[in-house]
Design brief:
By secondary structure, the protein is an alpha/beta fold. The protein has six helices and 14 strands. The protein is 23% helix and 31% strand. The structure holds zinc ion.
């Protein structure tokens, strides 16, 4: 299986949405729905990718704001999220006390469960619960690729100063679930450039 990864980023928050595609079947998923969904819709059309699901690393407004537009474009495909943040997408309730509602209620919602595999067409993702930035933060692993959301960035880690954040849980999760991965794995973050586990283990000032 050849996994192809491409990112689009919105201009306001520089939040990444990823198109993850199996080179043979063209089966694909979108990871996170940033505030400029038209960039992802154009990319999917250009690739002629068959988007089977939308996976959410967490449900902050800048990661779910484009959901309705993506579903309008791709049809009623499932949206997958950790169950502790499920209400954000099923009921359109905001994740944070600090921000307003981010999305309309969505019907076709599936759970991302720690330690289980989430399948979308030919693609299979391992789900790692990496909370702390938010309660339902997950990292999605496929092949040599990790999609870490706002848990781990190149040279930084996620904010944990929100009312439902937990700085200790964030560091514990990064240590147990991410730094335990092989050095060569590529890290695709919720914001900013890609990195590797090895580089972050050696140089990330928040992890030393
Ligand atoms: Zn974010």
């Amino acid at each position: 299986m050849t996994i192809r990864v491409e990112a689009t980023a919105d201009r306001q928050f520089r939040t990444n949405s990823y198109l993850v595609e199996d080179g043979e079947t063209r089966d694909a998923v979108v990871i996170d729905a940033n505030l400029e969904p038209e960039l992802m819709i154009d990319l999917v059309r250009k690739r002629n990718a068959n988007v089977r699901a939308i996976l959410l690393t967490h449900t902050d407004v800048d990661h779910v704001g484009g959901l309705s537009a993506l579903l309008d474009a791709f049809g009623p495909i499932p949206v997958a999220v950790h169950e502790t943040e499920r209400h954000v997408v099923t009921e359109g309730r905001p994740l944070r006390r600090e921000f307003g509602a981010a999305t309309h209620p969505i019907d076709n919602v599936e759970n991302l469960v720690e330690g289980e595999t989430f399948r979308a067409g030919a693609l299979a993702f391992e789900v790692l619960h990496t909370p702390g930035h938010s309660p339902g933060g997950v990292t999605l692993k496929i092949g040599d690729n990790l999609f870490t959301g706002d848990a781990l960035f190149a040279g930084s880690i996620g904010r944990s100063d929100f009312s439902n954040s937990n700085g200790k849980a964030l560091l514990d999760g990064i240590s147990a679930k991410l730094l335990s991965q092989p050095d060569e794995l590529t890290v695709y973050s919720g914001h900013g450039p890609a990195t590797t586990i090895g580089r972050e283990r050696k140089t990330n000032p928040f992890l030393t």
